Amino acid sequence: MAATLKFLRTLHSWLGIVALPWVIFFGLTGFYLNHPDAVRAVLPLTSYEDTGAEFETLPTPLGMAEAADIAQAYWPDSPINNITKTTYHGYDSVSFERDAGAVIVALDTGHYYVKSNFRNLQFSPEGDMVGRKIYWNYVFGIFHRTGWLGWSLGTVLADITSLALIVFGLSGMVLWYLPKHKRFKRRLSRRSA
């Protein structure tokens, strides 16, 4: 019995150490899903400034071929699924959509956005990154459901964490119950003697 208790205490301690960072992050993501504004207030890279004064208007707007050249530099192995003329952040733009995301080129200024599910990068006409935004709701939502942005390794880590929490909870219940059970048996044996 003493060896069992010692094993359970050791197992309980190790599971707590291994699972704790994941438990904290899963707790944070769950809290974010219920109260996004409270968590978003302390997160970095939630938005960038996008004012028309940042970029000068080009003497002549970019053509479709020039915009396509800019878009071609990102995810070159991914085919372009759709090309759409749109207005993005107040600019006449062309959106080049791919499986990996979209490249949106502002025709009047030449600046562009490289947008995926979890982030949006803003570039100057010269190609310098001038703004970055992370879509925390997507990142936390996917992490909370799958472990890490949909990667199969993340799902395995999430499953291991879940199993560790189950064993952690069960071993904690056994550690709480066994001493009480021993005391109860001692009291019964004293009363019957």
Structure characterization notes:
The chain is α+β, with helices and mostly antiparallel strands. It folds into two domains: 85 residues; 84 residues, no CATH class. It has a six-stranded antiparallel β-sheet with strand order 1-2-3-4-5-6, covered by helices on one side. Helix 1 packs antiparallel against helix 4 and helix 1 packs across helix 5.
Radius of gyration: 27 Å
Helix content: 40-55%
Sum up the overall morphology in one term.
Answer: rod-shaped
Percentage of β-strand residues = 15-25%
Strand tally, please?
6
Determine the N-to-C terminus distance: 23 Å
Determine the number of helices (DSSP H or I, runs of at least 4 residues).
5
How would you spell out the order of helices and strands? Answer: HHHEEEEEEHH
Tell me about the largest β-sheet.
Answer: 6 strands, antiparallel
Question: What is the element layout, followed by pairings?
Answer:
Elements: H1 2-34, H2 36-40, H3 64-72, E1 80-88, E2 91-98, E3 102-106, E4 112-115, E5 119-123, E6 129-134, H4 136-146, H5 152-192
